[in-house]
Structure formats: C-alpha cells, structure tokens
Amino acid sequence: MLTIGIGSPTTSVRTNTSCNALLRELQQIWNDIGESEADKDHMLLELERECLEVYRRKVEEAANCKARLHQSVAAKEAELATLMAALGELNIHSPIQTEKKRSASLKEKLASVTPIVEDLKMKKEERTKQFADIKAQIEKISGEISGYSLVNNAMISSLTLDEQDFSLRKLTEYQTHLRTLQKEKSDRLHKVLESVNEVHSLCGVLGLDFGQTVGDVHPSLHGTSMEQSTNISNSTLEGLEQAIVKLKIERKARILKLKDIVASLFELWNLMDSPKEEKNNFSTITSILRSSDTEITELGVLSTETIEQASAEVERLTKLKASRMKELVMKKRSELEEICRMIHIEPDSSTAAEKSSALIDSGLVDPSELLENIEEQIVKAKEEAVGRKEIMDRIDRWLSACEEENWLEDYNQDENRYNAGRGAHINLKRAERARVTVSKIPAIVDNLIHKTLAWEDENKMLFLYDGVRLVSILEEYKLTRQQKEEEKKKHRDQKKLHDLLLTEKEAIYGSKPSPRKSNSFRKPNGYRANGNGSMTPTPRRNSVGSGTPELLTPRSYSGRQNGYFKEMRRLSTAPLNFVAISKEDTMSYASIYGSESGSPPRLN
To answer: Is 390 exposed, middle or buried (0-12, 13-18, 19+ CB in 10 A)?
Structure first.
C-alpha cells in the first residue's frame, strides 16, 4: 500500500490520513467495478510512479532555488567584501561573520546582507564624489603650476573609475597633497604679484609701457578678463625674473648716463652763474646724485624724455659757454686772484687777465684749455690755503697786536688821556689790555718764526708772503723793533737829562713855569669822537721823519715790495671790550710801561 510522509509530523499525519481515505475510496470504486487484483496492483504502481515523479520535480525545483540563493548570497557577500575593502572598513565583527555563527538560512543571510551593501554603495558614491572633487582641484592646480591645463571631464572620470582605494587614509593623502599644492600656488602667486609690482615700479621710473612689458612675459599678467587666472608657472616666474634683471640693467645704465649729464649741468651752472629758477626746472633729476639706485622711485625720472631734455639743456649751455668763454676765463682768473690775495700768495702769471685776454683774442689758445688750467690753479691754491692756515692765523694775531701797539702809541702821546671826561675809563681799560697784548709781541714773533721754519723744512720750500719770504719780514721786524726800543730808551734818557737841567735852572733862577694848558679848541693828536662824548685814538703809522724807525709788518712790507697787492686788509677799529680784564693783567702794566709813560693818576 502507498504511504506518504512529508514535512512536520502534524502535516505528515494529516497527509497520510487524506491519502489513506482517498486510497480506500479508490479501492471501493475498483471493487464496485470489479477490477481484478492484478489490475489494482498495476494502477497502484502507476499512481506511486506519478507521485514519485511529482516529488522528484519538486526536489529539483527546490535544489535550483537553493543554488540561486547560494549564488545571490555569495555575490552579495563578495560585493560587501569589495565595498568594505575599497572603503577601508574591514571589521571582524561584520554582519557576514555574525550570520555565519548563527547558521542562518540563505534567505535570512541574503536579507541581512542586502541593506548593508546598499548603504556601502551610497557611501562609496559620496566618497567617489569627494575623490573626484579633490582630484579635479589637484589636477587644476598642477596644471596652473606646470603651465598648461589638465582639467578635462573624460580624464577626471577615467581617474575616478581607475581608483580602487576609497579609504579615509587615501582621502587624507589626497587632501594633504591638495593642501601642499594650494600652499605652493599661494607662494607662487605671491611671488608673481611681487615681481609684477617690481616691474610696475621699474617701468614707472623708466617711463616704459607696463602692460606691454608684462604682456610679453604672459598675457594673463595684464589681462582684463576676470575668467583668465594669473599664470604662476615656472616659465612665467623665470620670464618675470629676466624682465626685472633687464629693467634693472637699463635703470643702472640710465642712472649712470643721467649722472654724467647732471654733473655736466652742475659744472655749466657754476660756470655760467645760472639763476636759481633755471636750476629748479631740473631739481627732480639733480636729486639722483644724492640717492642710491633703490631710492629712485619717482615716476618718469629716468625716462628717455627726461634724459633727452637734460641732454638738450647741456647742449644749450655748452653752446652758450662757448660764446661766453672769455668772460668765464676772466671770472675764474678773478676767483684765483681773490683766493691768492686772501692767503697772500702770488698767482701764476701765465694766466694773468691781460695775457689770457690777448691769447683768446689771438686764437692761439683754446679757451676751454685755458679755463681748465685756471681751475687747476684754483684747486692748488685752495690746497695751499689749507696748508698755510695755521701760520696765516698766527700772522693775523701778530698784525692785530701791531695795530694795538700803534693805537697805544697814539694814546700815550695824548696829554688829556687822564682827564675825567666821558668815556675816559673805556680808553683806559683798552690801554691796559693793549699793553698786555703788546708785551706778547716778541713771543708771538719768535713762535711765528719757529713755526714758519718748521713748515719750510716739512714742505721743502720757502713760505712766501706776497712774494717775500715771511722769515725775512719777521727778522727785519725784530731788528726794526729793537732799533725802535733803543730810540725810545735814548729819548727817555734825553728827557731825564732835560728834566735835570730844568731842575738845576730852577734852583738858579727860581721855580719853573707851569705847563701850558691845552687849548680846548685844539684837536687831539690821532683821536676821533667815539659817539659818547669821549675821544678814541685812531690807528696811525709813524711817518718817515719820526724819531723812531717804522715797524715793517707784512702789510707794510708787501705794500712796498709787491705792486700787485696794493690793497691791504682793513682792520676793524671798533672798541674792544675791556670790562672782563683779569686783575693779574692789570697789575702787570706798571712793571712793563711804568718807566715809559709813568703811572696814570687815579680817578676820584
């Protein structure tokens, strides 16, 4: 008999009961029909064969379904593993491992893996967009640095498809690389802008077209389009550096050229005595002589127009100089003579005014060469003035002392010098100061002779004063002064003898007559009004017929010996301030001049 048991026990019992009932019903029908046992067995075998066929077909369908589920689960697991590997999210606690431990069915495994795979797919899409964006920026900046653009959608997409690693580690690497490129771009852009600004400054100073200069390096450096970014490639940086070097070389050349022109301008201005207004027109370019190359930043100061303008002025002044050369030669000769007069040396007679004028008129000498010769003589005279300064200062001190001595002689000859008149005390103090100064004259002269001889030994030449050796003048002065002192002593002795004779005569004939009073209308000897009612002695020279010989100072000596320098230096005759005279100086006067003029009376 055929029995069937499939599924759970409850289901199997239910199925067996139904099959047995149908089988009993079928056997009853066969009995009613009168089928034989053989036919009954044959039909039961057919029925059993058909049931087996149905079961076999269902088993095959179930096996195919299981195989498909196995394949789906394996595919999902493989896809999940691939996504996790690409995203770098490998984890031993993954859903696959958990489900394997629980021995879940295939449908359960497939149901648990599918949402995880979908989430990872979405995550990968987002990560892919991030990678694509970063790579696009990297390629764009790399293209800007390298000098050409690689931004192409097809290339970006191919790069995205070829990428197998979408992990955070790889993303961080790209981000770090991007930041490095962005910093390099920023540095390059800063360097480009600095170079462009330097080119702009140099072009402004040189008066060149800035747009054309940077445009020759790269159009983007002076482009007006906002879409065109500034090129920061190596070729652009090198081009800017080369442009800056060329501009600096040109600036250096123009500065040297302009300095030569300005030097010529100054020389011509000094020669021509150009007015200040004319010089002010070129004040901008004349300032470059005092400035370094980097300090010259004024726009257009080194432009070709400025240089041409300055060159034209030099050419104009040169032509004017040629027409006024004779006047310039005379002017420079006068300057030389003035310098020589101040330091009491004789100028070179080869360039004398009369001779120079004759040479220029005859055309035998080029005026420029003559002018240059005189300028060299001026330089030498100035150098000689520096070397003679110490001795010249001592000569001035000696001459001042001689002037004081002459004043004191006039003062001592005044019979009314001790009158209690207005301003008399001023002259008295000046006389006291003059006596101190005069007492120092011998030491001054000796020291001056010593200094002069030392100067002659050092310079291997004679120290001439208006063409005469200074030592000879000083020696003659000392001799004359000695003779004068002897004459003074002789005069004092004669006066004492005269006074002695008067005393003897008084003893014989009676008392001597009183001295004649001075006439109020008589002009004092060698005096002049000083503005306050008193009389101030004026400097005088001893006449040839005086009782004492004349003291020969360099002024009087040069006036006699040198006919060229007849005009002597004028000394100030203003009264000196004797208020601050020290007491020691005042006390020494009586010992120096007491025997000469007697002590002055006290003023009550």
So the answer is: exposed
Answer whether residue 168 is part of any domain: no
Say yes or no: 420 and 534 in one domain: yes
Beta carbons of 523 and 535 less than 8 angstroms apart: no
Neighbour tally for 365: CB within 10 Å? 16
Which run of H or of E encompasses 464? strand 464-465
pLDDT in tens, 444-471: 999 999 999 999 999 999 999 988 999 9
Q: Could you give the number of structural domains in the chain?
A: 3
Q: Is residue 201 part of a domain?
A: yes
Q: Are 171 and 127 in contact (CB under 8 A)?
A: yes
Secondary structure of residue 507 in the 3-state scheme: helix
Q: Are residues 529 and 409 in the same domain?
A: yes
- Which of these three, 79, 108, 123, is where a domain ends? 123
Taking CA atoms, 187 is separated from 140, 193, 269, in Å, by 16, 10, 51
Tell me, yes or no, whether 542 lies in a domain: yes
Residue in 158, 88, 163, 154 with CA at minimum distance from that of residue 128? 163
Q: Kindly give the interhelix angle for 367-412 and 554-561, rounded to the nearest 10 degrees.
A: 130
Identify whether residues 101 and 220 lie together within a single domain.
no
| Residue of 260, 240, 244 lying closest to 206 (CA atoms) | 244
- CATH number for position 585: 1.20.58.1520
How big is the chain by its Cα radius of gyration, in Å? 64
pLDDT digits (tens, 9 = 90+) for 180-218: 999 988 998 899 889 899 889 889 888 888 888 888 887
- pLDDT top residue among 354 and 420: 354
Cβ–Cβ under 8 Å, residues 178 and 134:
yes
* Other CB atoms within 10 A of residue 522 CB: 9
Q: 17 lies in which domain range?
A: 9-123
296 and 387: one domain? no
For residues 316 and 391, state if they share a domain. Answer: no
Crossing angle between the packed helical segments 168-206 and 210-217, to the nearest 10 degrees: 140
Strand partners, 529: 535
Helix axes 470-509, 554-561, angle to 10 degrees: 110
**Domain-ending residue, one of 276, 301, 323:** 323
